[in-house]
Amino acid sequence: MASFIKSIIFNQPKKVASTLLRTYSAKADVTQYETLAVSVPKKNVFHVELNRPDKLNTFNEALWQDLGACFKALHENPECRVVVLSGRGKHFTAGIDLKSLLSGFTKINEVEDAARKARLFYELVKRFQTYITAVEDCTKPVLNVVHQACIGAGVNLTTAADIRYCTEDAWFQVKEVQIGLAGDVGVLQRLPKVIGSASVARELCYTARKVTAQEALSIGLVSRVFPDKDAAITEALNVAETIASMSPVAVQATKQNLVYSQDRTVAEGLEHICLINAINHQSEDITKAAIAQATKSGQPEFDDL
Ligand SMILES: CCC/C=C/C=C/C(=O)SCCNC(=O)CCNC(=O)[C@H](O)C(C)(C)COP(=O)(O)OP(=O)(O)OC[C@H]1O[C@@H](n2cnc3c(N)ncnc32)[C@H](O)[C@@H]1OP(=O)(O)O
């Protein structure tokens, strides 16, 4: 084993030795938003909080746009390796802001011609879909912590995240049918895949019944339930820190391949990871990680991606 490691280091002497010893010193670049609070509580771990507590974190135009812009920026930010997403105030979110929904619809309904009106509705929904999909398109894993209510648009949002935790007092409601809408920003597509049961997903989407934290756990909507929000956030940040300590090349390729594979055949997913790893297997991260494992020298430092 020693000679094997020696030969690897000999082949890439300066790079591996210097990066193994390097300590992290970069400053995080944190953009703030009107409706989102963004912080960096641990190295490479970004915390995004829905921040309209006096409006129960309802989705108004600003929040929709901020979500899209924020997750695009985090996708592009090399210092961000993992995101924890939660909400400030009493509830995670009460869903779409019903006042802004109605005023937006009234404005479009003032257009007389059906084709032109339809085009405006189409573009509105398409835009909102893009903002939710930005969470999935962000190659950094997103851990969502839900407390109290997670309604309508909130369920669309949480099902686009990678990992979901909630508090004992949390509840979920696919409420769209109750306000006369067919869910159109991702829940109908993602919920059945997340929970793995078309029957349960359809029941929830047709009836708008509330799902408690314990039921959410039993159907696989969340993977863990915590006594309160502090405990949930603390553990989410710990898990995020573990993920952030791994090779970002490996973690981000894993998310890309999981997302790609969820709508495709096994053969297509396998081909996709072959193509990604044809490039990523050339990464210095593999050498660093393999040496660290072989020498039991602890987790190495990886460069940002
Ligand atoms: C193209 C569209 C794509 C997206 C579609 C998305 C659809 C959806 O999200 S459907 C879901 C819509 N949301 C709701 O129907 C939630 C309605 N609210 C409630 O059920 C309760 O308010 C809630 C359980 C969330 C909280 O109950 P709590 O007792 O804690 O508070 P309240 O006293 O009820 O509410 C406090 C004030 O907030 C106002 N409010 C609550 N929800 C909304 C909302 N979604 N939009 C706008 N305003 C909301 C509520 O009216 C109270 O206002 P005020 O009386 O002025 O204090």
UniProtKB/TrEMBL annotation:
<comment type="similarity">
    <text>Belongs to the enoyl-CoA hydratase/isomerase family.</text>
</comment>
<dbReference type="InterPro" id="IPR014748">
    <property type="entry name" value="Enoyl-CoA_hydra_C"/>
</dbReference>
<keyword id="KW-0443">Lipid metabolism</keyword>
<protein>
    <submittedName>
        <fullName>Delta(3,5)-Delta(2,4)-dienoyl-CoA isomerase, mitochondrial</fullName>
    </submittedName>
</protein>
<dbReference type="Pfam" id="PF00378">
    <property type="entry name" value="ECH_1"/>
</dbReference>
<keyword id="KW-0276">Fatty acid metabolism</keyword>
<dbReference type="InterPro" id="IPR001753">
    <property type="entry name" value="Enoyl-CoA_hydra/iso"/>
</dbReference>
<dbReference type="InterPro" id="IPR029045">
    <property type="entry name" value="ClpP/crotonase-like_dom_sf"/>
</dbReference>
<dbReference type="InterPro" id="IPR045002">
    <property type="entry name" value="Ech1-like"/>
</dbReference>
<comment type="pathway">
    <text>Lipid metabolism; fatty acid beta-oxidation.</text>
</comment>
<dbReference type="GO" id="GO:0016853">
    <property type="term" value="F:isomerase activity"/>
</dbReference>
<keyword id="KW-0413">Isomerase</keyword>
